[in-house]
Write a structure and sequence with these properties.
Length: 243
């Protein structure tokens, strides 16, 4: 055997001795750990192949509700309401129920509705003697508790009656309405007493009168905010004016 072969033999012996020392030291360390920790020794001696074939069912649908999917199996899109729309609806509710609110566009504070003083002592119908303050408060609450502009207009219309004059001198193009009689519980009252009891303006009554007289099919539906956007025409499409 030459020197090169002897070198490789010695190198293999050195590597083998080192590997044997590592294995023996690993076994000694494992034995020492098993003596110090009996549970670890028991775990090391247990066959772990059974845990891989565990038949415990796994719930893969945890946290997923069937309500989140439509009939085609696609996930439904969550509906998110517009916060501005919620604010407008809340202000509308406060206004229709006679409560104080802040306008949406101009941020003006509107006072809460309340029963106003009755008519003066010079009233020829003597309305202030027909209804007590408690009765007027009950009429006020009956009107504002409706909470809907259409129902409130219908309530006013039911308490109005046209007074036909003996001689109607109105012209065909006249915008003047017929005289109107106001009633509470079939008891006629003056206009001031009627408006002050409900705390409404004369414009509200005029609007109802106009619909009752001019509309072929009378309706009290609220038409505010129901218009569509007007079509905008660009200046480029307009014909040039000639001088």
């Amino acid at each position: 055997m030459d020197n090169s072969q002897g070198y490789f033999v010695n190198l293999q012996q050195m590597v083998g001795d080192k590997t044997g020392d590592d294995v023996s030291s690993g076994q000694d360390t494992g034995a020492q750990n098993s003596q110090e920790h009996p549970n670890l020794r028991q775990y090391m001696e247990t066959d772990h192949d059974e845990s891989d074939n565990c038949d415990v069912p796994v719930d893969t649908t945890l946290g997923v509700s069937s309500d989140n999917f439509d009939e085609s199996g696609e996930r439904k899109r969550k509906k998110v309401g517009r916060k501005a729309h919620w604010i407008q609806e809340h202000k509308k509710y406060l206004r229709n129920t006679g409560q104080s609110y802040v306008t949406y566009t101009s941020s003006k504070v509107r006072r809460a509705r309340q029963v106003q003083p009755p008519c003066s002592n010079s009233c020829r119908l003597r309305c202030f003697e027909k209804f007590t303050p408690e009765q007027r408060q009950a009429l006020f609450r009956k009107y504002w508790d409706l909470g809907d502009i259409e129902q409130q207009r219908l309530y006013i219309a039911q308490n109005l009656d046209r007074v036909l004059p003996k001689y109607d001198r109105r012209t065909p193009d006249s915008k003047r309405f017929l005289n109107t009689a106001h009633f509470f519980d079939k008891e006629r009252v003056c206009q001031a007493f009627f408006l002050n009891t409900l705390d409404i303006t004369q414009k509200m009554v005029r609007t109802i009168q106009g619909r009752m007289e001019n509309s072929a099919e009378c309706t009290f539906k609220d038409s505010r905010g129901g218009h569509q956007k007007k079509r905008l025409v660009s200046s480029a499409s307009l014909p040039l004016s000639t001088v």
